[in-house]
Design brief:
By secondary structure, this protein is an alpha/beta fold. The chain has four domains: 94 residues, Alpha-helical ferredoxin (Fumarate Reductase Iron-sulfur Protein, Chain B, domain 2); 55 residues, no CATH class; 107 residues, Rossmann fold, CATH 3.40.50; 120 residues, 3-Layer(aba) Sandwich (Rossmann fold). The chain contains 23 helices and ten strands. The longest helix is centred in the N-terminal third of the chain and has 20 residues. The structure holds iron/sulfur cluster (SF4) (2 copies). The site of one iron/sulfur cluster has 14 residues, from helix 3.
Length: 405
């Protein structure tokens, strides 16, 4: 695991060309030079040389970043900004007392408690069909301002349900696949989990459930490595059986679980990192045919390394539209949306406008945080016809028919 000093040469590679400005969503939304990697590298250079101190102020500039790493892809020097910012924030935590506000934001217990209550509240809305009523009156709520828009956003998370129709799980499954269900599936809504389990059962794979905690993505990105390592330990304890795969349906969980072995030396974490697969990897023998000629586009999460776009394009009978910037950040990114609410909303709104203009019915994605980001943007726009953000697996299970290839 590298610390900030180890990145001195990497930071020095920055030629100050400024090309990163053209792709950084936070810079575009704020026009603040400290938001973009060049500006942050200037500050970090000063810290490494001892001219500047790692203060709360510096941390707030480091937090002004969604971690999308678009700047890396565009940087002529190929600097991996995300890794450097994680090391810098880790440096901050090792040198400073954490403020009360940050302690609250970082509290895992509070995070779980909030998700639990949000999930319960959502289920009540769903049971009494209040979700439908709010959806119907969406444009009225949007006009009422901040709270109305937040209600629309919250409501959008509970609009889907998946029929629990797992029927033909194989009797003699050849492979054991442990399912890493992630926070959103566990606490908010299990539509995605049910969809994945249903589809995999049709593919001949039985999934095993365990009591996992959060994968730790926001702790890692925040540089709170102590918090991240605690979650790694808890999750490793759940892997007490032989398994062939650790399945995820979320791009971010997939990305972070593969990183466990970088932050934990145990043999178990190496095994885990090698066995993590996207649920899509296990669905290659299935063909999907859309129930209707839906017009769809995709949003590619920043952490997506599977390239699920081909899966969507290959759905038979689908009308696929490639929207500009489909692979650009949605602006949500966990703690970023809490710490920089206005900037986050601005990025999300500009992102979804392209989907609204394209006239698609659905925006398909593979990350629950991106669903929040897309819905956050849509809650800012009051128009007659809006696309519906939807998880890929829910779309495949509920809007398509499956057959073997
Ligand atoms: S694109 Fe790369 S080299 Fe150019 S200013 Fe940004 S970080 Fe520096
Ligand atoms: S990771 Fe994304 S948000 Fe952060 S500086 Fe790079 S382009 Fe901007």
């Amino acid at each position: 695991m590298k610390n900030l000093q180890d990145f001195e040469e990497e930071i020095y590679k920055c030629s100050r060309c400024g090309l990163c400005q053209s792709v950084c969503p936070v810079f575009k939304a704020t026009m603040n030079e400290c938001a973009v990697s060049r500006g942050k590298f200037n500050i970090l250079n000063g810290i490494i040389k001892g001219d500047l101190k790692m203060t709360d102020n510096v941390k707030s500039y480091l937090d002004l970043c969604t971690g999308c790493n678009a700047c890396k892809d565009f940087c002529p020097s190929g600097i991996d900004a995300r890794e450097i910012f994680i090391a810098a924030k880790q440096d901050f935590y090792s040198k400073n007392e954490i403020s009360f506000r940050n302690k609250l934001i970082n509290s895992y217990e509070l995070f779980k408690f909030s998700l639990l209550w949000a999930g319960l509240f959502g289920k009540i809305l769903k049971i009494f069909k209040i979700t439908r009523l709010i959806k119907l009156l969406e444009s009225v709520f949007i006009k009422t301002g901040y709270l109305g828009k937040r209600l629309v956003l919250f409501n959008s998370l509970f609009c889907f349900s998946v029929k629990n129709r797992t029927k033909f799980a194989p009797k003699n499954a050849l492979k054991t696949a442990i399912y890493f269900d992630g926070c959103f599936n566990k606490y908010i809504d299990n539509a995605t989990k049910t969809a994945v389990v249903n589809i995999l059962a049709n593919s001949g794979i039985t999934t095993v459930n365990k009591k996992f905690e959060c994968c730790g993505v926001s702790y890692l990105h925040d540089g709170d490595i102590r918090g991240f390592k605690k979650l790694i330990q808890k999750n490793l304890q759940q892997l007490d059986v032989e398994y062939d795969y650790l399945i995820t349906d979320c791009s971010s969980c997939n990305y972070v679980l593969k990183k466990y072995s970088q932050y934990d030396d145990s043999e178990n974490s190496k095994i885990l990192s090698n066995k993590v697969v996207s649920a899509l990897d296990l669905m290659k023998n299935l063909k999907f045919t859309a129930n209707k000629k839906y017009t769809v586009a995709v949003h590619k999460p920043c952490h997506d390394d599977y390239d699920f776009i081909d899966v969507v394009k290959n759905i038979e009978g689908i009308n696929f539209v490639e929207v500009d910037d489909f692979d650009k950040c949605c602006g949500f990114s966990g703690k970023f949306a809490i710490q920089n609410q206005d900037v986050s909303r601005k990025i999300s709104t500009s992102k979804v406008q392209q989907y609204v203009d394209s006239g698609v019915d659905y925006i398909i994605t593979t990350c629950p945080a991106c669903l929040l980001g897309l819905n956050q943007g849509l809650a800012e726009i009051d128009c007659q016809r809006k696309p519906t953000p939807i998880n890929l697996f829910v779309f495949l299970a509920e809007y398509c028919r499956q057959s073997s290839i």
